[in-house]
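Subject: sequence -> C-alpha cells, single chain

Hey, anyone have a minute? Need the predicted structure for the following. Not urgent.
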Amino acid sequence: MAILNMVRDYERVAKFQLGRYVGMKGPGLVWIIPILQAGVKVDTREQYFDVPPQRNITRDNAGVDVDFVVYLRVMDPERTVLEVRDYLGAARQLATTTLRAVVGEMALDEVLSRRDDINDMMRIKLDEVTNRWGVKVTAVEIREIEPPPAIAEAMTRQMSAERTRRAQITESEGTRDAQINVAEGERQAAILEAEGQRQSQILRASGHKEAQLLEAEGYASAIAAINEVAADAHGNTMGLQYLDAIRTLATSESTKWIVPMELTNAARAIVERLGVGSSNAGASSGGG
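Reply:
Had a minute. Here:
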C-alpha cells in the first residue's frame, strides 16, 4: 500500500527506489511505496544555528571566548541529500574550527576591533566548503567576544584613562579658544580705540590748519589794505617829512651834514612842485 506525502512549497523530497536515487519530488503530493521506496525531506528555507562560546587563542597568545550565529540556506537539495549526512551538524563543526583558524591569525586588539572583518572572513571560508553540499552560508554574526578578566580590567582602565585624556584635551581646547576670543576682542578694541584717536587727531589738525589759513588770510587782507592805502598817499608827504628832517638838522650844533642822495632828490622835487604851484598861482592872479 502506497503512502501519500504532502510536500509543501518550501520542501523537497529526495526519492529512492531499492536504495537508488530516482529524483527530487515536490511540492505537492508524493507517493512512497513502503519497503520498495523511501523519501528524505529537505527544507529549502533559510536556517540558522548558534555556536556557544568557544575558547580561542589569538596570535599574541591571549584567550578569548567567542559565540556567534550562522545563517545558511539549501540551494541544491539533491547534493544536500547525497553529499553530506547532516549538513547542519557538519556546518556547525566547520564553523567552530574556522573561527579558531581566523582568530588565531589575529592579535587580541584586532579581534576586539575588527568584528565585521571576522564575520566576512568566516562567511567566505564556510561558504567555500558548504558550496559542495549545495548549501550557501548567507551570513555570520558574532554576538559576543569576552577577553580574559585581567585583560578586561586593563581595558576598562585604559578606557577610563582615554576618556579622562579626552576630557582634559576638550577642556584645554575650550580654555584656549576662550583666551583666543578674549585676546581677539582686546585687539579689536585696541584697533578701534587707536582708529578713534587717529580720527580725532586728524580732525584737530584739520581744524588747526583751517584756523591758521583763516588767520593768514586775515593778515594778508590787512597788509593788502595797508599797501593799497599807502599807494594812494600823495608823494609830497614823504618830501615834507624830509624837509622837516632838514629843519631839525639846521637847529643842531653840527657844522657838517651827510645828506643822502634820496633826500636831495626828494627836496628838489618838492621845490620844483612848489615853484610850479607858485607860477600857476601868479598867472592866475595876473589874468584876473
